[in-house]
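I have been asked to look over a protein record a colleague put together. Alongside the sequence sits a line of tokens, each denoting a local backbone shape. I have pasted the whole thing underneath without changing anything:
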Amino acid sequence: MNKANKLRELLATNKLTKIVGAHNGVSAKLVERAGFDGVWASGLEISASYGIPDASLISMNQFLEAARSMNEVIDIPIVADCDTGYGNALNVMYMVKRYEEAGIAGVSIEEKKFPKDNSLLAGGRQELLRVEEFEGKIEAAKAAQKNSDFMIIARIEALIAGWGQEEAQMRAHRYAEAGADAILIHSKSSDPGEVLEFINNWDLDLPLVLVPTNYPSLTEKDIVEMGKVKLVIYANHGLRAAIKAMENIFAKIKNDGGIYDLDGLIDPVSHVFELQGVPEMKEHERKFLK
């Protein structure tokens, strides 16, 4: 069973599928070990790992290589955050080909103009494409895929842009008709009310996807009870936790004038070796180095 098929099967069940953001092999392994269903190759996390804004500044190949490096060391499926698709409909076709070849289970593309600003950025540019242009991107993506299980998720940014519920519903329906396999409805409101309104009004038998970063009060129990949401993405919490931990440790080393008091605050190097697969490597050495 390939990973795209795994993802399809997960979304076909009555359970809520839960995936978590990552940006490299180690963070992807930690998501898998925590017991989640899949990994979100987060555009924000990957951009941040380069120390630059999430604003279409790095190339498709850089995002793709990050997703590929994660996919190669885990057994759970990856959904890749592919921003606006890295260009027009022709770019989207090339993107789908490359991501599918890399073993990625699905991609999410959003209806914003290139270059984009992060959806949660205060004061960010949230300019949307014409509906027809994004429909063309969805159609192109579906035409380009070879594996029928590979998923194209259409990310609705109308609520992010402040264009309202009617516009969001219209766009979501149009993208569903264009062939999208799921609809990600995004919101930057701290109250889940506008997302709940969208879900309540959704009348198609197509799975919905949520990213509750800004409205954490909406629990998995609440989401399951609505019945229409099949996938929830915890998009960037690993990166934010790592940043906080590193800032605290670096400050402690600076203030202490050394590393003599870090026991219990950081993992031993042996755990890093284990995450890297060093025990397996040494076993292979014993077997095959002659």
The chain has twelve helices and eight strands. The mean pLDDT is 96.
